[in-house]
Amino acid sequence: MILNTGIDWRSIVYRGFESEELDYKAAQNWLKLNRYGKAKFARHCMALANTNGGYLVVGVGEDKSGKPCIYTGVTEQQSRSFDPTDVGNFINRFADPAIDFEIEKPVIDGKKYVIFVVKRFSLLPHVCCASCNSELQQGFFYIRTADAASRPAYKASEVHELVQRALRNQREHLGRMLRGILYENRKSLEPEAKIQFGEQLQSSEKFFQKLNTENNWGNGIKLQFNIFPPEFIGDKFSLSEIEESVLKSYFNPIDSPFFDPDKADDSYFTNISYRVICRSNKILLQAFSSGFIHYKRLFGKEKSSLSYLELLRFVTDSMMFIGRFYYELGYTDELLSVMFKLSDVENTSLSPDINFSSQKKKTTRSYVCRISEIHVRLQRSAADLMSGTVEHSERVFKEICERFNFSQGQHGNLDETISNYIKNGTFKR
Asked: I want to staple 100 with a disulfide (CB 3.0 to 4.6 A). Which of 119, 168, 173, 305 is the partner?
């Protein structure tokens, strides 16, 4: 078994409360459990998979008040008893389709734990296909509730949510299939073009450094994105066309961390680009006549913490702008290379200042990045970016959060959150 080192196991084990995506069990030996005891694991796994996915931790007992805070871990014998094949075969006797889960065995503070990592269902929700005493009932769809219960979905709203989740998953799956077909023979960034665009990127980076020095912006977290068309034509567009596309593509809700051209300190033409400078927000956006874009922003002089909400707004606003900009320029079908980059983020924490996720209890924990730079890339057409803003924003944001060791199951219904933000210009608290 290969340990998934991208997950912060310590934070999961020591969370201290159960939730929609997290359940705890006292130390036990799988081989010594009766059929009823094993069926409990099947019920919890089905419920987690039918909701948002999550974790089932073995080796944490409850105190007298019922709080999971007794960290015993499991013995070596107990750990070995949870054989993935044996456990998987038993659990999936009761689930249709089969549940996709892994069993990890991290060691924390010298104690070993068994952790079921349960993935959210992909296309169809899991129905219980066999009964087991009173623990499992054939034909039931088990879900995870806000009070951390794993029970059948019996409310109309719960069944509706399950159906909607299945429809969203199927739409995403179909979209990925279609994009795979559409992009199969699509021309990507040419090697020579990469070098020429790289020269424009380098010059823009130098100018940002000059702005930083002149204005004493400091050494905080730097957020940026670069967009590369598939081929380099230096004068493909007039500077006026570039400016017009920038202004038409601007979308900036109140207090967005993106940029507002109307409030820019400077906006002017160079020989090869349209430049927008917002000194108060420490932002440079440079759109070149070649179609290349370089955007960079510095977040304050401190780099100890980055807001979850601020980062989500930045990613979503950026994706909306990128899709609109290239659509305005006529890049409907060409394959664009999109790169998001966060610099100077080593030992920076992501502060989950949210209460809209599957976590019903707001956590004060920060999730720490252990690398100096974060890179997230994707290749999409402008038409795809326009039509799939929610999906692409979600993907980019989740990949960035993974570098802060923020697990996938903690985002909740992120697609709905992004959709509401695009519609209303704000997040629901």
From this structure: 119
